[in-house]
Amino acid sequence: MRVAGKALQLFLTTTDKRKFIVTIPNIIRMRADNFLEGNIVFDISVYQNAECSEGKLKSLYGYNEEQAQKYLSKNLREIAEKNLSLFQLGSSYGCELLALFSGSLQIESKSQELGRVSD
Question: What pTM, to 2 d.p., does this model score?
């Protein structure tokens, strides 16, 4: 994992040893807990606009119940107005990575670009 400016890059290897980089551009807010070198990635999800759940945003911002009641509606409005997306990575060892971002997620192999996921 590397933060470069406002972008987050994840360097991943598949079980068959293919290497690729996931780049999350224009990070607005990010939270990574228990991220360890040996983590096995179980799933990656991208939620766009209204798909961003209050529970995930509560975790991303570290809100307690009082803070959630005060700020979540504002966060949800901002996500809709700015067309933001939420990246979630779940892995072994209890790691969770959440990143709120704008723009298009990019996935590249070591030798060639695999594709892009657009808003």
Answer: 0.83
